[in-house]
Design a protein that fits this description.
The chain is mainly alpha-helical and 163 residues long. The protein is built from 7 helices and 2 strands; from the N terminus they run H-H-H-H-E-E-H-H-H. The protein has a domain of 113 residues. The chain has a two-stranded antiparallel ribbon with strand order 1-2. Helix 3 crosses helix 4 and helix 4 runs antiparallel to helix 5.
Length: 163
């Protein structure tokens, strides 16, 4: 890859109205852009029952055209974070849901280890959730393809060229 600022995706050129009128150059650049295969498939076989349930729920809740096969590993990481968060909350609640607990070594108080883990997991989830549009602010930055077989950008560009 060349050093410097990475090229702007064609979709952003269209949105900003800065699409160049040089048809051949734009068409060649668009032809090189990655076109993902839609759908992440079934949950990995290494997942336990809770993780598979989280996978199925998130796949069902995610709009069509957002998850592609190339997202499978990143999506699996996010699913593991959600399942780990659920377990951390369960264990935190089992200890009485107190953020501070007695420290038997020093006779004082210490942060509940399950609460500490929950905080770490929640921060990792916050970062990862933006990649898939799972927060209100992230939803406006993530676009979904209308049809898994058709490329809406190509249809729009072809319509502009002929119209």
């Amino acid at each position: 890859m060349k050093p410097g600022v990475p090229p702007k995706p064609t979709a952003l050129h269209v949105i900003s109205g800065a699409l160049r009128k040089k048809g051949a150059a734009d068409k060649a650049r668009r032809a090189k852009e990655m076109r993902p295969h839609w759908g992440v498939g079934d949950a990995p076989t290494s997942f336990n029952a809770e993780q598979v349930a989280v996978w199925a729920r998130l796949v069902e809740d995610t709009p069509p055209g957002v998850l592609a096969r190339t997202d499978r590993d990143a999506f699996a990481n996010y699913v593991l974070l959600v399942a780990a968060r659920d377990l951390a909350v369960y264990l935190f609640n089992a200890t009485g849901a107190f953020p501070l607990i007695a420290d038997n070594k020093n006779g004082g108080m210490k942060l509940n280890p399950y609460f500490r883990e929950f905080k770490h997991i929640a921060e990792a989830m916050r970062l990862a959730s933006g990649e898939f549009g799972y927060t209100p602010a992230a939803r406006v930055r993530v676009s979904a393809a209308d049809d898994a077989d058709a490329d809406p950008l190509e249809a729009f560009l072809d319509e502009r060229k002929t119209g």
